[in-house]
Amino acid sequence: MIDLYYWPTPNGHKVTLMLEETGLPYRIQPVNIGAGDQFTPAFLAISPNNKMPALVDHQPTDGGAPQSVFESGAILLYLAEKTGRFLPADSRGRVAVLEWLFWQMAGLGPMSGQMGHFNVYAPEKIPYAIERYDNEVRRLHGVMDKRLAQTAYLGGEAYSIADMASYPWIGAYDKLPVDFSAFPNLKRWHDAIAARPATQRAYALREKVSPQAGKPLSEEERKHLFGQR
User: What family does this belong to (predicted)?
Assistant: First the structure.
């Protein structure tokens, strides 16, 4: 059994996508980041950067004590190696998937998050910041579109953890729709993943865990989420 410390954010969705695809048994331990659950001593013991998702695997492959893992990219890699799925065994295929996994962790995720912050959440609209991150995310969408003109998925012809990492960050903000007309290959890829039964099961968890997801933030939630506590 795996305990998944989760809240329905793009980074949280990455891991539920993988768990639903693999069929590994797991139970969700909600981490209400708007209420400050990520700062509790018990959570910090497994995720010292006070960020979710994190997991605890009570049946690690080495047969030892429970294994905790934090950081969404590390979790995806851990689960891929545990199951032998969604990460190629051959060295060149593995490198390609890991390139695009780390590309997402270093670029698409952080830049999309900053775009969302300055467009949606910032109390003051700063034109320079809005333009800076809008342009960078659009550039990254172009990088994906070019890659997806060559291969079915980011890491190659097979669906992988690289796709699971990137998919939740495409159209993550309802107020900031993706210009799919400019990126037809990105749209084809996004539609294909959205149609997967495991994707639909993973996203159905959003309403179960946080029925208020998407609602305007309270001042208290802002303090917990944006470092004002």
Answer: Belongs to the GST superfamily.
